[in-house]
Amino acid sequence: MIRRQRAKLESMLAPADRVGADSTMPSSMSDEDLVNALAQYLDLEALEKQALLERPCLRTRAEALVELLEMKMMMARTPGLYNVAH
Predict the structure, then answer these.
(1) Is 17 exposed, middle or buried (0-12, 13-18, 19+ CB in 10 A)?
(2) pTM of the full predicted structure?
(3) What sign has the CA pseudo-torsion 60, 29, 17, 41?
(4) Is 51 exposed, middle or buried (0-12, 13-18, 19+ CB in 10 A)?
(5) Which of 25, 40, 72, 79 is the most exposed place for a label (fewest CB within 10 A)?
């Protein structure tokens, strides 16, 4: 399951002009190190990072990170979405 999440993360974060090219993420990096590094270094709110840290295992942390990034990508493509009251 984590391999599928890793593949999603790699495809989401690969530069658009490098489609089909080798990933910029080192394949030698363990899944856990990759997920933790992304959670730490991506431009995420402190509460989002905390929520990822509180996940019980690597699989659920990776799933949550993918979902979070998908949501952020969707919001970035939808003009005015940030102005919607919650």
Answers:
(1) exposed
(2) 0.74
(3) positive
(4) middle
(5) 79
